[in-house]
Amino acid sequence: MLLELVEVTKRFGGLTAVSDISFSIEKGEIFGILGPNGSGKTTLLNLITGILTPTAGRIVWKATEIQGRSPHAIAAAGVVKTFQNPQLFLELSIYDNIAIATHLPLQRQLGLRRLAGLLPWSAAARGSNVMGRIDHILALCRLDDVRDRTAAGLSYGQEKMLGLAMAMMCEPDLLLLDEPASGLGEDEIRTLEEVLRDLRNAATTLCVIDHKVDFLARVADRAIALQQGMMIAQGTPADVLRHPRVIEAYLGRQHARA
Amino acid sequence: MKFLLWIPFFVFPALVRSDFILTIFIFSFILGIAAVSFNLIFGFTGQLSMFHAAAFGIAAYITSLTVSLFHVSFWLGLLPSIGFAIVISLLIGSICFKFRLRAFYFAVVTLAFSELARLVILNWNDVTNGTLGLMVLDKPSLWLPMVGQLRIEGAMGWYFLSLAALIFTVGLCSLVLRSWIGRCFAAIRLNEDLAQTLGINIFRYKLLSFTLANALAAIAGSLYAFYTGYIEPNYLSINQSLDIISMVLLGGRSSIAGPIAGAFVLTGLPHVIDLSGEARAMLYGLVLIVTILMMPQGVIGTFAVWRRAA
To answer: How is chain B split into domains, by residue range?
Structure first.
């Protein structure tokens, strides 16, 4: 078991955003979290990545409790997330954005030897293989054509891919994706699915959040469904989607709107 | 190849023998060190520190007091002041960054600490001689091959000493900024939330930036004290901080060269245009306002944009 949540609750004042949720993610799988807008999906991700601290409950990562740790420490431990609305270093080029994300792999690989890399003549300790991976990731995310453009000039789909590229550069063990497919066109979704498959082949465990049912149903091995902060179903995506409470809470409402 | 740009500075004193002009250059070099190092925390890490003049002034006092009380060389006297700058930066930085003070809050708290330091120096009459300040009679000396022990006294000596110190500062800053540390500084400046999720320890790198900036300011302050031969509590005043900020804004805060250009303009301008104190302050303000309005990226930044466009 890679990640386990035990009875995690988060309250904001009187509002309970996440209520008593327990589930676990196994190594190597693609885990889906499903739910309509406002059901607590993003809050759940922020709890796992340390941006928020749970009001109650435990979050166990590789047999250590991580709730209350700072976000950078959790990222360093191997849990990295992408943002629903891509967060980027807007003034910098695409390449430089990803270069900043080399922080963790360089730290892991070189540790204090990075200090030797400060000297102008010691090129060896600068982690050239890590920097070389930037090109690989740029190509994988179809960003190699725009690598020298500033991040402010990207289309929404490219912004999302850049967010994913930066998270990949961190070489996480568990990658949490917050609505990776929302706002993407058909082609971009196909690229995304390719990238996700590639990640899974590289032994990265994925946790994907989405309110789009079809995308999750295609990529996830297992899923849970949330409604108003509570877990209402879990199992294979097909089982979850067949669950009466999910149909009522999620599809039902969508049908009612249509 | 950027180091070739320094060559004119080495040739310059051979062509211009005027002590008056060399003096302007010496002040520009020393204040340039203060401005370049301030830009580490301000321009590159995005934190407006108001402690810079305090680090500059405290170091001026510590170095000259160490030299006069213990009769050691300038270089040995520099060590405790750099050491103190590091310790005090770690202390103040830890307080500010632990409480995640951002933008104005950071500026106000560092300003409070810097006023605290000024008041201590102002009122500690036995040691600092209060408002009257202290004369610094010693001069640094250097051992050079072929020349032997050389006392840095005249304009020529100070020109090369301060130039060397500026080159050291620029070299150190560019090495740091080119490395992963510089990338962390940029990440913190541009998007702290994202930086954290990429595993960057914001607290650690802000602290590093603040400490490095103040340690280099300590070198500038010590040189300034020994060059002018005089120290007073006003070195730590908010005016001194504002002067340094002006240099950085004027020159441009996105490069290392910018603050140096700013230091030259603001040091040279009052001498080129002979004005009284009040008029000079007004000119300072006017130049600053016009530059910020017309060239928000500073002189060097605007120049870089022109060159890219051409």
So the answer is: 2-235
What does the DSSP assignment read for A108-145?
Answer: HHHGGGGGGGGSTT--GGG-HHHHHHHHHHHHHTT-GG
- Say which CATH number the domain at A56 has: 3.40.50.300
Query: pLDDT tens-digit profile of B95-132?
Result: 999 988 887 899 999 999 999 999 999 999 888 888 88
Indicate the average pLDDT of chain A.
87
Alpha-carbon torsion, ordered B257, A132, A199, A111, to 10 deg: -70
Q: How far apart (Å, rounded) are the C-alpha atoms in residues A172 and A77?
A: 8
Choose the closest CB to B184 out of A83, A91, A103: A103
* Chain A residues within 8 A of B206 when measuring between CB atoms: none
Q: Do B194 and A70 make contact, defined as CB atoms within 8 angstroms? A: no
Q: What is the pLDDT of residues A96-142, one digit of tens each?
A: 999 999 999 988 888 777 887 777 776 655 667 888 889 989 988 88
- Per residue, the 3-state secondary structure of B77-125, as one string, reads HHHHHHHHHHHHHHHHHHHHHHCCCCHHHHHHHHHHHHHHHHHHHHHCH
Cβ-defined contact of B175 to A75 (cutoff 8 Å):
no
Residue A165: what residue type?
A: A
**What are the E-state strand segments in chain A?**
3-12, 15-25, 30-34, 56-61, 64-65, 79-81, 174-178, 205-210, 222-227, 230-235
Decide: A210 and A219 in contact? Cβ < 8 Å.
Answer: no
Q: Is the ipTM of this complex over 0.90?
A: no
Does residue A176 contact residue A132 with C-beta atoms inside 8 Å?
A: no
The token pair that represents A230 in the structure block = 């509570």
Q: What's the number of domains chain A is made of? A: 1
The shortest C-alpha distance from A218 to chain B (Å) reads 27
For residues A170 and A128, what is the distance between their CA atoms, to the nearest angstrom?
A: 15
